[in-house]
Amino acid sequence: MVKVNGKKRLRIWGALSLLTIIIAAGCTSGNSTGSSTPTSNSGAAPVSSTEPAPENVELRMMWWGSQDRHDMTMKVIELFEKKNPHIKVTPEYSGWDGYWDKLSVQVSGGSAPDVVQMSFAYLADYTNRQALLDFGTQDINLDKVDEGTLSTGKLNGKLYAIPSGVGTSAMVYDKAILDKAGIQLTKTPTWEELANIATEIHAKLGGDVVGIPDLSDESDVFNYYLRTKGMSLFQDNKIGFTAETLEEYYIYWDKLRKSGGIPSVEASLAYKSEPLEKSLLMTGKSAFAVYPSNNFNAVATMANRPLEMAFIPSHTDEMANYLTPTMYWSITAKSKHPKEAAMLVDFIINDPEAGKILSVNRGVPISSEVRDIVMPQLNDNEKMMVDFVGKVSKSAKPVNIIEPNGSGEVRKLFGNIANEVGFGKKTPAQAAQEFIKSANDILDKMNK
Questions:
Q1: In terms of Cα–Cα distance, which of 334, 1, 335 is closest to 136?
Q2: Average pLDDT, stretch 138-157?
Q3: Is 176 in a helix, a strand, or coil?
Q4: Distance between CA atoms of 444 and 448, rounded to whole angstroms?
Q5: d(CA 166, CA 321)
Q6: Is the pLDDT confidence value at 1 over 80?
């Protein structure tokens, strides 16, 4: 076991090189208790017969995700409990919606779970609230993890979050719908081409079939829109783009709404409140959707028909896609059992059996050892995902993914104002000006 100390110089390119190596090497892609002793990967030494039995401990673990992620994670918890019979893990899980409100309330009330799934969009918020534990205070095995990958979970030189895996976002599409409309898609469409395709699909197939979902309220999609314009959501604790660019983005989606290329706001919000199986892509009412690459297998399996992946649209020949940790694991600062919580995170990252169960659901594994074990078992959809991520790793430029304190609140504001434009309550110009002012006010207040 090694202590995380941050002595080595970190480079964000490390995360990119990690995936390049994978592809170049030909890689393709309820609680229970037991009675066995921990393995060397569990984060604790085996208990000697002469040593007193370890004290019984109960941990709480919280994550978001789809049903298949819940099922996989529960199996890993059961395995961990079997190998560590003195530790019981109580699970708490949900979809993305509501997760952060629940976690925020629990942190404020001093009742947060011991281990939580974390997003880069909220990492700075929770770190600045002193809600997360520095992994450097715990013994955890990171020998098989690229330091560039670890660097994405560091703030002020301390490691507050360990990536669960790395990935990117993708335009997932149903080629059969495109074929029915007589449309040929390039692997690197521009935003203008995507708008034309979406409008044409609705015109040719009619009814409630649209080209793409309404993504106007998705701040991550807007970040891709900004990326090949030389801008980003945040820059030096401020908004990193102009009001004119945001107005242009609102107009883009407003035109698609009027042409039938996307649904009405009412229909869009209704679909977004439904489970994945009732989404537009799943029900054959949209040719496209944007998903994290690590969700591709679950989406394609649920669709039960062939789906493919394309890069996020760009304004130029430069690729908009970039690699990020798909999500992180963090330990909350007020955990009464940080040692055992670290054992659980260590187990998820390093245990070969756990790796086989989780596979690439949370991204390509960060441990090279686990990655080598997992890759041969992947199905065709998972191999397609790993290949796609590998293509991104070869061309994508690095990005600073750690966002300023208050970014989570800014992202919520982004979605709310975008929907007001969709409902016609604000013009694109009015909404853009209001967002820039309100968002900067939030960031100024939170980063003093």
A1: 1
A2: 89
A3: helix
A4: 6
A5: 13
A6: no
Neighbours of 194 (CB within 10 A): 21
End-to-end CA distance of the chain, in Å?
A: 38
How many CA atoms does the CB half-sphere of 259 hold within 13 Å?
20
What is the distance between the alpha carbons of residues 168 and 120, in angstroms, rounded to a whole number?
Answer: 13
Return all residues near 131 (Cβ < 8 A) that are at least 6 apart.
107, 112, 332, 333, 334
- Strand (E) or helix (H) holding 89: strand 87-94
Place of tokens 């760009």: 314
**pLDDT tens digit sequence for 344-369:** 999 999 999 999 999 999 998 999 89
Of 114, 112, 131, nearest to 123 by C-alpha is 131
| Domains of the chain, first to last | 13-167+323-395 (3.40.190.10), 169-319+406-446 (3.40.190.10)
pTM of structure? 0.73
DSSP H helical ranges for 317-378 = 338-350, 352-358, 368-374
Could you give the percent of the chain with pLDDT greater than 70?
Answer: 88
CA 63 to chain CA mean position, Å: 12
- Taking residues 400-423, report their average pLDDT: 91
* pLDDT at residue 49 in the model: 52
Nearest alpha-carbon partner for 135 in 123, 119, 153: 153
For residue range 56-112, list pLDDT tens digits in order: 999 999 999 988 999 999 999 999 999 999 999 999 999 888 899 999 999 999 999
On whether the CB atoms of residues 159 and 136 are closer than 8 A, the answer is yes
Tokens of residue 444, six digits: 């100024």
Separation of CA 195 from chain center: 25
Cα angle 66, 185, 205; round to 5 = 80
| CB-count exposure of residue 321 (10 Å: 0-12, 13-18, 19+) | buried
For CA atoms 29, 92, 152, 66, give the dihedral sign. positive
What is the amino acid identity at position 180?
K
pLDDT digits (tens, 9 = 90+) for 207-248: 889 999 999 999 999 999 999 899 999 999 999 999 999 999
Residue 26 burial by Cβ neighbours in a 10 Å radius (0-12, 13-18, 19+)? exposed
Residue corresponding to tokens 């978001």: 64
Look up residue 374 and give its amino acid: V
Q: Do the strands 87-94 and 57-64 form a parallel or antiparallel pair, or are they unpaired? A: parallel
